[in-house]
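for the record, two folds in this file. i put them one after another cuz i was lazy. first one right below, seq on top, structure tokens after. the second one comes after a little note so u can tell where it starts
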Amino acid sequence: MPARYRDRLLESCGGQLVATTALGDRCLWIYPLAAWEEVEAQFRDAPNMNPVVKRFSRLLIGSATEIELDGNGRFVVPPLLREYAGLDKKVMLVGQLNKFELWSEDAWQSITAAYLEQEQDVGELPAELHTLSL
């Protein structure tokens, strides 16, 4: 874990994290424990008979694994999650507000190159983005 995040994570969640499969990408989502508990609460309140909710719950909640920062700010990713994300020696940890994404370096370079090559005109923005000030 990069030093700029490590101290905050140790202070806010005692270095307790949760790793799970990302929805829609071959990477992992790494949540501080408190942020993960908010995700769990949303699934607990969601209609569990809805097939889409059930599917996402199985993918996200079912693969969730608690991990912990060691004294050097490192954490061990379980083999099943490493395999899912294709993680090898070189990885990229990308901050995403309430969580991190953990990518294989090759996959991260491929996806960012693809984004940069896409036409810059993204078309009509969703209503949720109209209120952002960037």
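(here's the note) second protein begins now
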Amino acid sequence: MTEVRRSEVARTRAWVLEAPGSDLVLTEVALSPPGPGQVLVRIRATGVCASDVHVLDGRLPKPMPFVPGHEAAGEVVAVGTGVDDLDPGAHVVLSILPRCGTCAACAAGRANHCAWAADLAGTGTLDGIHTGWHLPDGRPLHHFNGVSSFAAHVVAPRSGVVEIDPGLAFSRAALLGCAVATGVGAVRNAARVAVGDTVAVIGCGGVGLNVIQGARMAGAHRIVAVDVDPATLALAERLGATDVVDAAHQDVRTVVPQLVAGGVDHAFDAIGRPSALEDAFAITAAGGAAIAVGLYATDDRITLDAFPLIGERRLVGTYLGGVDPHVDVPALARDALSGRLELDALIMERSFEELPAAIADLRAGRTLARQVLVLA
């Protein structure tokens, strides 16, 4: 049963979802101080991701009521006992990949599949039992994968809080928690794209554009961007795509093998749609791989032709780009500060109060860039 600490509670604002399909409500909630191994963070910027919409719609079930949001940056306000490596005022990125360090996955070097973190995600708690906040009527308010960034303040596990260079603006740093880490990480960790390789990216939203950037930084020879929006394809070219395919008027399975004879070495589905993953597999060359980057619904299914497997083609899954947040996020921040990684072109800033409008625009496909809510 979920419990909540009630001593020394403070108040903060959070967008609360009572049930899948209902409206988000901006609510004043009671926030407990950080417990052992936890950190209180003031959210300064948080991105609006399609994964949030999946949860709002009930395609990815979560304990309710809860506060969504998982891509954020902020500053440390206070720390709980046992946290001696973060000071108040530190600039941090929040990650949905905390870790226990002791389970089988952590011991095997696969901390992004930590069993303890999976338990937090499933229970909507900070430690498997307790939440860090509750509603005005006393009901426990659940967390989203230890982050819940659609709030002015959050308590998070220390292992999910990553300190970064304070020179990077919060609105830019927020993207390192999901869109950038997932896209660039998929290139570096799942596909291991090498100099001279060929790449196709199906879906050039917040994640797909960062797959393109990752491929460019890796030295890919050809990078084919696939999308249905001409403005998005133009941005993809600016960020490194060498070729574009307008999927609204061109057949991906025909055009890509014409652009890159025989197909590409790495084809990424950055949408999270079964048909897109099937297309990605179909356009790979012999020895190539289709990489599933997008987030799929729990009941999604794919159908693949079996014969192409004789060409040693592979289907590869990845979760948040296979990153180690405490290694990769600071490195990505350095890439952004050095100019290797472009973030300004990815961002459309909005106010915290505009979250419902931002979600509506995301659903309707009215946004070119990643919408980032900026809190004063």
